[in-house]
Amino acid sequence: MGATGMAGAAGTAMGAVGAGRRRWWALAALSLAMLAVGLDGTVLSVALPRLAGDLEATASDLQWFSSSYLLFLAAAMLPMGLLGDRLGHKRVLVASLSLFALSSAGCAYAATPGWFIAARSVLGVAGAGIVVMALSALTVLFPAAERPRAVGVWSAANFLALPLGPLLGGWMLTHLWWGWVFLINVPVALVGVVVVSVLVPKAVPEAVVGRRSRPDPVGVSLSTGGLVCVTLGLIRAGEYGRHDAWAWAATGGGLVLLAAFGRYEHRLGSRPGRQPLLDLRVFAAASYTWGVVLIGIAVFANIGVLFTMPQYFQAVRGTDAMGSGLRLLPIIGGLVIGAVPADRVARLLGVKVAVAVGFVLMAAGLLMGGATSVGSSAWFVALWMGLSGAGMGLAMATSTAAALSEVSQGRSGVEAAVLQAVNKVGAPFGSAILGSVSLTGYRDRLRVPDLSAADLSTARSGVFGGAEVAGRVGSAPMSASVRGAFVHGMDLALLVSGGVAVLGLIVALVFMPGVGAGRDRAGRGGVGGSASGSQPVGVDG
């Protein structure tokens, strides 16, 4: 080889190294943006008491402070995916980050409950754009061989918001004005704008350009309406119980709309020259279909921990919000331990076995958690939480990477939105079901003295209501009964969660493809790389 050829080869190698570094820096920016979205969801729980006083909010207002964000987050998933596919993922991601910064400032300076709810709604739309575009960007930034590791890092960053929100929010509310709880998102989002603008390539493939003139308004309406109704129904079921008629009506109506959406998209896709919002052919790929299903199962199973344990730490063990956040660190550490090396585990064992091992660990941890008592040691609780977290990290990172391996680059926005929609709906669904199990167990075990009708209703509403009444009437036996009854209900919920994890194990072993993480589908546009490790190419759009 001549000097010129050697220099050219060296330059190519250095360029590949530089491109690799740019990808990982871009991933850091995407993870930072996802952390901002996650923080906004978790920090509100500790800010609600202060907001109630300063904004003179009613109980209904407080409900909508949280629900408005979740509803608009769900509603905007598929439309944001469509916008990304048609206008450019990078363009929509930068716009979403900018909107997130503006709406966070709008929350901080809200003067009335209506203003705050409106700002939270816009924040949900911006959050949907961020989470969908960030996930779809992974299909462009990383070849198939590196994508599982990238998904592991991305997943670990997402989960950091769980303890960080209460910790950061609790400190701010103790020492600063409550508006800083939301203003903290502004610099994070703006840094994300700068880094994404510099490091993330444009990624609208040329194949999409010809399809931009044929929107699917019916598909957008049906999918949005269905996700909103299902989410609203599940939120209401979590607040008012499984017997609430409006919860059933909203959830059932949403499922009907989603079924109509699937039927309509199938019919539209069979017409020559028409382009549906969601190409249902993607579900012919087992890695995508069962990857999506297993993501939903994993979220459902582990939401029992995130739903019950903060209540356990605060109402039973007597910690505050910051202390509760600190005690959630074992599950976050487990998630990181399981998610980050998921790619190496999948290469060593195969995708099917890797996902199955994740669900085995998750089931073991959750079933151990079902033996938690009022006096359980901190080490025991940390052990089973860390074990379930490691299983969730491994199962979710591997399932997500397997599903992304079947995503076509030209449709990656919408197809990534489906993954995120299942993820986001799975949380309120799990909270509604497991919350109902926990509350039923609590009420069955609760023993109280003679109380007025109002006090009895408050005591039966949950552990915090029971603790309040016990303190007011000065009954030590009732206080002990409240704590014991809650732990009984919590254990039942964790056992159900463990059973769901066992279901995930069975589904993974029966249906998940056994070799590799799927393949990039050149016939449907590919995902910017191949299993052989070829470099992804961003296409300006």
Automatic annotation (TrEMBL):
<dbReference type="InterPro" id="IPR020846">
    <property type="entry name" value="MFS_dom"/>
</dbReference>
<dbReference type="GO" id="GO:0022857">
    <property type="term" value="F:transmembrane transporter activity"/>
</dbReference>
<feature type="transmembrane region" description="Helical">
    <location>
        <begin position="245"/>
        <end position="264"/>
    </location>
</feature>
<dbReference type="GO" id="GO:0046677">
    <property type="term" value="P:response to antibiotic"/>
</dbReference>
<feature type="transmembrane region" description="Helical">
    <location>
        <begin position="285"/>
        <end position="309"/>
    </location>
</feature>
<keyword id="KW-1133">Transmembrane helix</keyword>
<keyword id="KW-0046">Antibiotic resistance</keyword>
<feature type="transmembrane region" description="Helical">
    <location>
        <begin position="321"/>
        <end position="341"/>
    </location>
</feature>
<dbReference type="GO" id="GO:0005886">
    <property type="term" value="C:plasma membrane"/>
</dbReference>
<dbReference type="Pfam" id="PF07690">
    <property type="entry name" value="MFS_1"/>
</dbReference>
<dbReference type="InterPro" id="IPR036259">
    <property type="entry name" value="MFS_trans_sf"/>
</dbReference>
<feature type="transmembrane region" description="Helical">
    <location>
        <begin position="353"/>
        <end position="372"/>
    </location>
</feature>
<feature type="transmembrane region" description="Helical">
    <location>
        <begin position="68"/>
        <end position="85"/>
    </location>
</feature>
<feature type="transmembrane region" description="Helical">
    <location>
        <begin position="220"/>
        <end position="239"/>
    </location>
</feature>
<dbReference type="InterPro" id="IPR011701">
    <property type="entry name" value="MFS"/>
</dbReference>
<protein>
    <submittedName>
        <fullName>MFS transporter</fullName>
    </submittedName>
</protein>
<feature type="transmembrane region" description="Helical">
    <location>
        <begin position="151"/>
        <end position="171"/>
    </location>
</feature>
<feature type="compositionally biased region" description="Low complexity">
    <location>
        <begin position="532"/>
        <end position="541"/>
    </location>
</feature>
<feature type="transmembrane region" description="Helical">
    <location>
        <begin position="117"/>
        <end position="144"/>
    </location>
</feature>
<keyword id="KW-0812">Transmembrane</keyword>
<keyword id="KW-0472">Membrane</keyword>
<feature type="transmembrane region" description="Helical">
    <location>
        <begin position="177"/>
        <end position="200"/>
    </location>
</feature>
<feature type="transmembrane region" description="Helical">
    <location>
        <begin position="378"/>
        <end position="404"/>
    </location>
</feature>
<feature type="transmembrane region" description="Helical">
    <location>
        <begin position="24"/>
        <end position="48"/>
    </location>
</feature>
<feature type="region of interest" description="Disordered">
    <location>
        <begin position="522"/>
        <end position="541"/>
    </location>
</feature>
<feature type="transmembrane region" description="Helical">
    <location>
        <begin position="492"/>
        <end position="512"/>
    </location>
</feature>
<feature type="domain" description="Major facilitator superfamily (MFS) profile">
    <location>
        <begin position="26"/>
        <end position="516"/>
    </location>
</feature>
<feature type="transmembrane region" description="Helical">
    <location>
        <begin position="92"/>
        <end position="111"/>
    </location>
</feature>
